[in-house]
C-alpha cells in the first residue's frame, strides 16, 4: 500500500483530496502546515490559521486518518516573506503563492513527508499530472485542471521533474461543484466552507497596510504621463522583437505632477485603487514605478498606451523548464501560449532564447506586464516552463 501525506489546509479541496485518496486505497496521513505566527508583521486576530488547523483536524478525525501539524514558520519567513519585502522595496511585484509551492509545499513539506515514509505528497490544487516518454526516460507532464474557472497550474509553474514525481493532485480531474458535492456526501465539515483569499499570514489585512509594517511610508510625486507622449509613438513591430521587450523608461519630465503618494514600493503596474486622486477626465492607472527616486508614473484611462507592452524578458537565471526535454537551444524560437498572471486567458506568443535570457513576444500587446511576476508558457493544456519577468 502506497503512503501519501496530504497537505490538509482546512479547506474543502484538500479535504476531498484526502477522502479520494483513502477511497482509492492509499495509506493517508493528514498534515497541516503552520506557516506564520509572527505578530510583528501581521494582525494576529485576523489570521485564520488556528481555525483552519481545527477544521483540518476535524476532517482527519472524520476520515479516520492520522493527523499532525508541522511548523514551517521559520522557513516561510526566510523564503517567502523576506523575499516579498525585498521585491516590493526594489519596485517589483512578487508572487508568493508560486514561491510557496516551490519552496515550502514541494520542498520543505515534501522532505518532511518523505521522512514519514511517504511515497507521495498530495494537495488540493486544481491541476493534473500524467506521464510520457522522452529519449527513453519517463517524463512528468503538468496539465491544467479540468475546471477552467479553477485551474491552478500557474501556481505550480516552478515545479521540477523531481517534485512532480512525488506529487498527486486528486481534485484536478473535477469541477469545483463536484468537489463540494463529494464533500457533502462524505459528511466533511468543510463542505460549505468558503475558499480562502490571499495569504494566511496577511489574513484580511489590506496588503499596503501589511507592507507598511516593514516598509516605511515615504511621500513622493505622482506624475501623469499623457497618452500622446513620444515614449509611446514608435511601438516596435513584430519583427523587432528585442526592442519589444524593453519596458518604458519614464523620467520626471515625462509628464506633469498631479499629486502625492506614500511610497512607490506600495504600488504595482496596472493598479487603480489606492491612488486617492480625483478630478480627472478618466481614472488614473499606475504605468511605472521608480523606487530609487520614489516617483509614481500614471496614465489616464484603462486604454492608456503605457499600460500595454508587446513583449517581456526573463534573465537566464530565472528561466525554468518544467519540461527540460523541451528546452530551447540558444537562437531557437517557438510558438506557445502564455499568461503573465493567474486567471489571465492564455495568449499566443513566440519565445526567443538568447544567451542572456528568454524573450516572449505576444501576438497582441498585453496589459500590465509587471516585473517580479511569473510568466508561464503552455502547449495546449500542458505547462512547459516559466520565469520571473525582468
Would you mind describing this structure in some detail?
- This protein is an alpha/beta fold and 390 residues long.
- The protein has three domains: 208 residues, Rossmann fold (3-Layer(aba) Sandwich); 97 residues, SH3 type barrels, CATH 2.30.30.280; 80 residues, Translation factors (Elongation Factor Tu (Ef-tu), domain 3, Beta Barrel).
- Helix content is 23%, strand content 29%.
- The chain contains eight helices and 18 strands.
- Strands 5, 6, 12, 13, 14, 15, 16, 17 and 18 form a nine-stranded antiparallel β-sheet that branches. It has a five-stranded parallel β-sheet with strand order 3-2-1-4-7, sandwiched between helices.
- Strand 2, helix 2 and strand 3 form a beta-alpha-beta unit.
- Helix 1 packs parallel to helix 2 and helix 3 packs antiparallel against helix 4.
- The longest helix has 20 residues.
- The chain starts with a strand and ends with a strand.
- The mean pLDDT is 92.
Query: Helix share of residues?
Result: 10-25%
Secondary-structure-derived class: alpha/beta
CATH superfamily descriptor of the largest domain = HUPs
The helix tally amounts to: 8
Which band does the percent of strand residues land in?
25-35%
Low-confidence stretches are: none
CA gyration radius, whole angstroms: 22 Å
Q: Can you tell me the CATH topology of the largest domain? A: Rossmann fold
Q: Total domains, how many? A: 3
Amino-to-carboxy terminus distance: 46 Å
Q: What's the assembly state of these chains?
A: single chain
Q: Sum up the overall morphology in one term.
A: globular
Tell me the total number of β-strands: 18
Mean pLDDT over the full residue set: 92
**Strand-and-helix sequence, N→C?**
EHEHEHHEEEHEHHEHEEEEEEEEEE
The major beta sheet can be summarized as: 9 strands, antiparallel
Amino acid at each position: 500500500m502506497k503512503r501519501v501525506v496530504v497537505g490538509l489546509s482546512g479547506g474543502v479541496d484538500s479535504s476531498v483530496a484526502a477522502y479520494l485518496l483513502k477511497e482509492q486505497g492509499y495509506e493517508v496521513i493528514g498534515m497541516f502546515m503552520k506557516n506564520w505566527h509572527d505578530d510583528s508583521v501581521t494582525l494576529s486576530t485576523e489570521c485564520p490559521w488556528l481555525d483552519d488547523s481545527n477544521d483540518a483536524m476535524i476532517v482527519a478525525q472524520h476520515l479516520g486518518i492520522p493527523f499532525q501539524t508541522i511548523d514551517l514558520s521559520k522557513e516561510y519567513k526566510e523564503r517567502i516573506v523576506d523575499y516579498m519585502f525585498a521585491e516590493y522595496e526594489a519596485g517589483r511585484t512578487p508572487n508568493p503563492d508560486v514561491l510557496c509551492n516551490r519552496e515550502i509545499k514541494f520542498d520543505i513539506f515534501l522532505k518532511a513527508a518523505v521522512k514519514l515514509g511517504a511515497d507521495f505528497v498530495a494537495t488540493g490544487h486544481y491541476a493534473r499530472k500524467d506521464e510520457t516518454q522522452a529519449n527513453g526516460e519517463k517524463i512528468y507532464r503538468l496539465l491544467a485542471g479540468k475546471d477552467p474557472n479553477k485551474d491552478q497550474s500557474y501556481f505550480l509553474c516552478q515545479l521540477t521533474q523531481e517534485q512532480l514525481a512525488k506529487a498527486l493532485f486528486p481534485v484536478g480531474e473535477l469541477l469545483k461543484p463536484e468537489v463540494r458535492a463529494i464533500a457533502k456526501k462524505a459528511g466533511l465539515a468543510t463542505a460549505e466552507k468558503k475558499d480562502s483569499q490571499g495569504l494566511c499570514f496577511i489574513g484580511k489585512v489590506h496588503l499596503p497596510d501589511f507592507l507598511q509594517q516593514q516598509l516605511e511610508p515615504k511621500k513622493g510625486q505622482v506624475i501623469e504621463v499623457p497618452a500622446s507622449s513620444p515614449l509611446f509613438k514608435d511601438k516596435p513591430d513584430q519583427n523587432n522583437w528585442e526592442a519589444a521587450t524593453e519596458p518604458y523608461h519614464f523620467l520626471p519630465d515625462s509628464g506633469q505632477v498631479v499629486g502625492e503618494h506614500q511610497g512607490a514600493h506600495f504600488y504595482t503596474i496596472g493598479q487603480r485603487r489606492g491612488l486617492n486622486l480625483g478630478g480627472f477626465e478618466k481614472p488614473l492607472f499606475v504605468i511605472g514605478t521608480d523606487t530609487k527616486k520614489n516617483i509614481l508614473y500614471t496614465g489616464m484611462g484603462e486604454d492608456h498606451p503605457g499600460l500595454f507592452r508587446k513583449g517581456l524578458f526573463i534573465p537566464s537565471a530565472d528561466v525554468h523548464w518544467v519540461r527540460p526535454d523541451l528546452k530551447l537551444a540558444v537562437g531557437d524560437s517557438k510558438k506557445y501560449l502564455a499568461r503573465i498572471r493567474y486567471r489571465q486567458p492564455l495568449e499566443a506568443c513566440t519565445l526567443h532564447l538568447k544567451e542572456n535570457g528568454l524573450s516572449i513576444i505576444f501576438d497582441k500587446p498585453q496589459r500590465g506586464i509587471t516585473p517580479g511576476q511569473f510568466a508561464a508558457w503552455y502547449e495546449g493544456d500542458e505547462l512547459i516552463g516559466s520565469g520571473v519577468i525582468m
